[in-house]
Amino acid sequence: MTEEERYQLGVETMNAVGDGSAQRVIESLGDIAPDMARQIVSWGFGEVYSRPALVPRDRQLLTLGMLTALGGCEPQLEVHIGTALNVGLTPAEIVEALLQAAAYCGFPKALNATFVAKKVFGERGLLPVTGA
Amino acid sequence: MTEEERYQLGVETMNAVGDGSAQRVIESLGDIAPDMARQIVSWGFGEVYSRPALVPRDRQLLTLGMLTALGGCEPQLEVHIGTALNVGLTPAEIVEALLQAAAYCGFPKALNATFVAKKVFGERGLLPVTGA
Amino acid sequence: MTEEERYQLGVETMNAVGDGSAQRVIESLGDIAPDMARQIVSWGFGEVYSRPALVPRDRQLLTLGMLTALGGCEPQLEVHIGTALNVGLTPAEIVEALLQAAAYCGFPKALNATFVAKKVFGERGLLPVTGA
Amino acid sequence: MTEEERYQLGVETMNAVGDGSAQRVIESLGDIAPDMARQIVSWGFGEVYSRPALVPRDRQLLTLGMLTALGGCEPQLEVHIGTALNVGLTPAEIVEALLQAAAYCGFPKALNATFVAKKVFGERGLLPVTGA
Amino acid sequence: MTEEERYQLGVETMNAVGDGSAQRVIESLGDIAPDMARQIVSWGFGEVYSRPALVPRDRQLLTLGMLTALGGCEPQLEVHIGTALNVGLTPAEIVEALLQAAAYCGFPKALNATFVAKKVFGERGLLPVTGA
Amino acid sequence: MTEEERYQLGVETMNAVGDGSAQRVIESLGDIAPDMARQIVSWGFGEVYSRPALVPRDRQLLTLGMLTALGGCEPQLEVHIGTALNVGLTPAEIVEALLQAAAYCGFPKALNATFVAKKVFGERGLLPVTGA
Prior knowledge:
Six copies of one chain form a homohexamer. Chain A folds into two domains: 1-53, no CATH class; 54-126, AhpD-like (Up-down Bundle). Chain A is built from seven helices and no strands. Chain A has helices at 3-17, 21-28, 34-49, 56-70, 74-86, 91-105, 107-123. The longest helix of chain A is centred in the C-terminal third of the chain and has 17 residues, at 107-123. The first copy, chain A, starts with a helix and ends in a 9-residue tail after the last helix. At the D-F interface, helix 3, helix 4 and helix 6 of D face helix 3, helix 4 and helix 6 of F.
């Protein structure tokens, strides 16, 4: 792949799973860190996320776990909980993942992530969550 | 204990040390993660916090240390600094704990926790802290 | 569920996905923290892991992400990478998950987890990993 | 050094690299944790930062790395990105440091720090960053 | 206090709660970072730990929480679990603190700390822990 | 740049600052995660580290701060403290950086990093450190 092809694959991958919120993050980097923006697209999406070895639903479960565990990544959780819904994780599955996070990361981090999920679900009219 | 008894013990334990703020967190989970709410009450308070091996003042010192160290847990610190006051830790002791946190977790995390304490103390008319 | 039923469900759940390594951790707690051992079984496995809202393969992906992000949890990663294999994640999928972890948690934590995976895969005769 | 001399050296060191924002943090501790304020000045600046073994530009690069990696330290990053500019790091160098942080800490933490930098640079009329 | 008085107070404070293991850490810094060694004694023990606002038992509970939450601090946990015993925390109280840590930091970090406690208790002939 | 050129630039960059230890890490990934090895070289070194906006000495100070703050990254610290020496940071500067890390990350993480430095310095005959 050339550099341009990697970037194009990144854009396509990002658009296939996103709803515009990752794109807005990328755009907001334009006047400060355009090379970081380009790396997120070309490398993060074009070289890593696009690989077929894990489907997007798997990747979003994994990312949900990582962002909850890292802590302090609420803005990224907001984007990725939206993406999780886009690629087929149900609200009840996301909430279940966060209950499991309580056992591995403790309740405080699990709660922080749950309140981000509540915001995202609320904006999409997905509250109350049933079956959770 | 039956499941109902565990839940009742959790509610009683939570009410005995709390001032309603933990309860409001629990309630706000109602439309998204009711099972997480139930686990916090039944397990966190009913099975763990209620154990007599450590008194509430000990538990709150411990939790103050953990939440400061984890980072990014300001909402939980706000609840737990309130609880710390409820169970007998003085403002000066809480501030002292956060000075010690500077040595073990660094000044940035200690400062984040101190500004949460300032908010809680201010709301309770406990500023300025004397003897700190 | 009674307390005994929760414990039994926990044991069954742990045995269904495990290969004895989680069990050995539980046993090694016997002379120091038997109640923590019981809580891991009754609560962690009996009340959380056993819930049908996520299948074990999903839970292990999530846990792989969390343990890699937390850092310093190599002993738990060793158990959980084994469990991941038991519930159907392939070596190539696990390695792929860790490449994605590099993008979200940085290369140092991803490398630490990868070397734990190398140990587990080696013990099971799964090296070299093909298709990764 | 006497205690008073340490404090004076701390004040001078802080003033030499700062623009008043660290001073405002110190002042805001006055009614809750004056001893923490004093330790930051006397010890943090007077005994540690003032040592000649590393120049301020080196110290700010190091601190930029630490605060980004810790996570949840956005208020401290805001102060220290300002200080970084004061001691001679250029906006392009700060942005470059945060791109490297993406490789070691992952993109989420790097993005959090980048958006703090965007705020600080914007307030100083340093956007767009050229050469980044 | 003069610098010499701070150092002396630090040595006395360290000796009063310690059993030689903190001292050995300090000594092992002698050929690489003697100033860090001096700061731990003069500042950490002489200026922070020696303050009467919290008794040593309180400080060790707090530190146990912080080190467990930080993760990757097993060598420091080993020293501080020893100190905790020295200042009056019982093995059962320490184990109880770590069960509470499971709720706030997750089981993996709680387990890491518990296995350090098992080592320290074993060396002191305190196993099995009764009443835990 | 083509993919091959990126990889070559990565190898050259890695060789220019390294002493073979990063290379050995890369090689040890060969039978488990060759694509992660390739990404570290092509992306980490070829696209990020090779950028001229920060000189290697700056990058190593930054990385020293990040790895110390992350915690649990002792294997990476060992490689990077060696690299820090290679690119011109003196033992006294590295030790000074770790003293500053005590103020921002707490003494436990600073100590962990200092003992890694002691190992690396010892292997290179650089102990005792003078002027630290």
